[in-house]
Amino acid sequence: MRPLSGHTMPFAVLGHPIGHTLSPIMHNAAFEELKMDAVYLAFDVHPDKLMEVLPAMAAMNFKGVNLTVPLKEVAFRGLQNIAPSAKILGAVNTVEFTPDGKMIGHNTDGTGFITAIAEAFSRKIKGMKVFVFGAGGAGRAVAITCAMEGASEIAITDIEENRSKKVTEEIRIITPQIKITSVPPETNACRTASLNADLVVQATPVGMKKDDPSVLAADCFHKGQMAFDLVYMYPETPFMKAAIKGGAVAANGLGMLLHQGAAAFTIWTGKPAAVSAMRKALETAVYGKNT
To answer: Does 164 share its domain with 272?
Structure first.
């Protein structure tokens, strides 16, 4: 990273330590590639302090901020200006500080997910049967995005069944034409839902530890399926291993991290992101690739 000057444009990520590790790596790689006098930093901010910190960052001339869990919903509730991308998902992962002093909340997770799926499997969501395992913030965003993209059927489960039922009702209001089902968090019910799907998405934190078990066993998958794990810090997660053993093609969430970051970069700077440089930096960090 080049030495900072008095004109250096600051950006930041606030929230989860994993995001702290990889988000600066890819954004700083983009700044280097584009020869921008900018830097991307990481800060731990308590949810109760977020709405004090954001205006302070704007006053300090920060140009943009990413948010990870559990700050996305806090920003959605606290910001006055919410872009349509965040409004539909009920969460903010990108904050834009405008020259006229506004703080605008965006969400690039949906765009990141769609692009990652197309990249990993050469398929579009439209017409797919999708099973989402996990109805928290990430799972909800994925399920709603799939509905908006024209999935033919969506099934969603969560260990807290009320949470999946709530997301199901939300999607019925947004896209009443799509078949949406809340699946009980029981082994047989989840296995049936998974085997019925074209695309199975793992949207829980399970797998963030290397010794975590897969949320679904190998017999929940079959040949011709696609399995996507939002966990991105390992080349092959427990969920991916189970899916591959069952015959599916699997990918981790690194592509989603990359493309949601690229979309945020463009919101902040008005420039196309240096995607190749960002990808190389992420793959070097996660896979040890240096080519």
So the answer is: no
